[in-house]
Amino acid sequence: MVDAKDILKKYSAKIESQLDSSRAEVSSEYSQFKEDMIHENTLYERWAKTLGNLVSIKISEKDKTNIERTIKEAHVDVTPSQAATLSIIAMSLIFFITLLSTVLIYLVSDKFSILFFVLGLVASITVYYFTYTMPKRLANSWKLKASSQMVPAILYIVVYMKHTSNLERAIEFASQHLEGPLALDFKKIFYDVEIGKYSTIKQSLDQYLETWNIYAPEFVESMHLVESSLYEPSETRRIEILEKSLQVILDGIYEKMLKYSREIRSPMTNVYMLGIILPTLGLSMVPLASTLLGGSFTALHLFLLFDLIIPLLVFFLTSEVLLKRPGGYGESSVLELNPDYQKFTSKKPWIKSLLIIAPLIIIGLVPFIFQIQFITNIFGLQHDYSFSQIGIGSSETMLFDFKNVSTSSTSLTQPSKIGPFGPLAIILSLLIPLAIALFFSISYKLKTEELIKSREKTKILEEEFTNSLFQLGNRLGDNIPAEIAFAKVAESTQGQTTQSFFAITNQNIQQIGMSLESAIFDKKRGAITYFPSALISTSMRILVESVKKGLQVAAQSLMSISDYVKNIQKINQRLRDLLAEIVSDMKSNMTFLAPLLAGIVVGLSAMITAVLGKLTILKTIQSSEGTLSTLSSIMNIFNSSEMIPPYFLQIAVGIYIIEITFILTKALVTIDSGKDPLKEKSELASNLKRAILTYILTALVSVVALSILVSVALSQL
């Protein structure tokens, strides 16, 4: 007997072979949706797929479930096995390189570098943690972007359903006017029904809302209230439920941000103490520690510790704070939709900045340029000069002060130079972190200046437009046709920015004879082209849609939008007030206190180096004269040739200040505004300039003042 499944399989294959799939037609909207959903593979995805296809690592079902959930939330196209493989291989590779390098160093120098091995081990663990938690961070980034659109989403759905109680049309309307990830999610809800994955829009919506149950329960509750309004027979009760849904999400976001503002005080204080205060204070002991350790702690170790390990610690602490940030609040405008977005992605600012800072880098390297025999011979210069040689006082202190030491290579003893230790070299070294900070500060300012101004103008415009909407709604409520109402509002808003919008719309209607929709949305002459605002565009779309239902419906819609937007603005202001104290305190610490403390520490380090250098000279003089003293015995403990030159110490501290400014600025912007690349780069341009100038000026004054103090104090010896 022939099985029914075999018959179905046979004829299904025959039918499919006779169908021409190339002739299948899909809607233009669905084609656009599919194009929007296809994202460019990130570096993480490429590495995970490459290594995951070469090596397959089995993971437990529990880990697989957790990783799969975060990957789905992050919208990353990798498998749990590929993600785990990348983490393990990256850790193993770093550990193997560290082990191999340690063995090679031992074979060449006959010394086992414990510090290097420990640093490599820490680096391998850090890389594992970073790659293992990458899906979680990507998911959090996606959620922050999407959740910033939740309040507008509920607003659009509520306003639409107040005059048309149709959930499908409301979600479609919201998906067309939302921005960013949430717009794509809403389109997917709609298209999952169109392609037959779900039979009703409610099933598709409920399935989607499950992904927000933990992260944004207020959003889920609001959407369920919207759904319940469909079953209310009373019109008054239906409107009340819709209005309640918007209030629920606003109250929920406020409560979560209130709780978050209390919870992050202690973690952010820990970040400041462990990541800034303690490391900066420890810097003052580096010159003495490097001599006491007999050269085991070098400039390379200093750079690894302060410019790699400590910034990674700060990054880890701030990441933990940001992962707990609730969604639903933040900057809702999408940067990619700005007409001047190409300025943000342009590479020209990088080139301009590089040309500006190149001379600073060259001047900062002058102490090493003077050590090049070829250059000094051409210009007839010495490798170094004392202050007395250039006519500044009678001090024999060298400007650059490179010290000659002997290094043994096999059976030969070869002379080499270490340094620079001189005060002028320290001052010139300040130009290198200054150049690095200015490179990013200038670049980001050129990229964001016009876009930030445009955003601020749009915000001012939207605040004015909220009141204008109320006036327009009143005019429509008096049964004045929309075409005439625009002229009335244009007259009553004289002197305001939004007056131009109503005047242009009225001009298009009265003089050109356009319809209301064309007068506003025409691509060439429409009033909306001069006012790039999502709020204005959506409000006018609602107006055009609701006018079809009657003037009273349109009036109620516009007045509802005005009331809701004012309420949202009040909530946003209250949330900013909650976070203002934390953000302002950390910003002050980042741009003033930390650079100030670091600059003083650099001056102290330069002073300690100068003292040890002077005492070493006195010891040498006493030894040559045969008059050994207690000073000579004490100085045997300190070998100035094994000190870390303050030139490199200052550069390490300067780079550390720049890195801390990057990490904390990103953290503060995310806390205050959610995922906002534009504000992040704009704040970086400002904070980097303030922090580095404070640091440079403090370090310069400290080095000069303390060098003079040391010179005077030791001149009696």
List the helices and strands and how they pair.
Elements: H1 4-18, H2 28-37, H3 43-54, H4 61-74, H5 80-109, H6 114-132, H7 134-147, H8 150-163, H9 167-177, H10 180-194, H11 201-209, H12 217-228, H13 235-263, H14 265-283, H15 286-292, H16 299-323, H17 341-345, H18 348-364, H19 366-369, H20 373-379, E1 403-409, E2 412-418, H21 423-429, H22 431-477, H23 482-492, H24 499-510, H25 516-521, H26 534-547, H27 551-625, H28 630-635, H29 646-673, H30 677-714
Antiparallel strand pairs: 1-2
In short:
With 717 residues, this protein is an all-alpha fold. Helices cover 74% and strands 2% of the residues.
Please tell me what the overall shape is.
Answer: elongated
**Low-confidence parts lasting 5 or more residues at pLDDT below 50?**
19-24, 408-414
Give the biggest sheet.
2 strands, antiparallel
Query: What does the average pLDDT come to?
Result: 79
Characterise the protein shown here.
The chain has 717 residues and is mainly alpha-helical. 74% of the residues lie in helices and 2% in strands. It is built from 30 helices and 2 strands. The chain has helices spanning 4-18, 28-37, 43-54, 61-74, 80-109, 114-132, 134-147, 150-163, 167-177, 180-194, 201-209, 217-228, 235-263, 265-283, 286-292, 299-323, 341-345, 348-364, 366-369, 373-379, 423-429, 431-477, 482-492, 499-510, 516-521, 534-547, 551-625, 630-635, 646-673, 677-714, and strands spanning 403-409, 412-418. Strands 1-2 form a two-stranded antiparallel sheet. 37% of the residues are buried. Mean pLDDT is 79; it is low at 19-24 and 408-414.
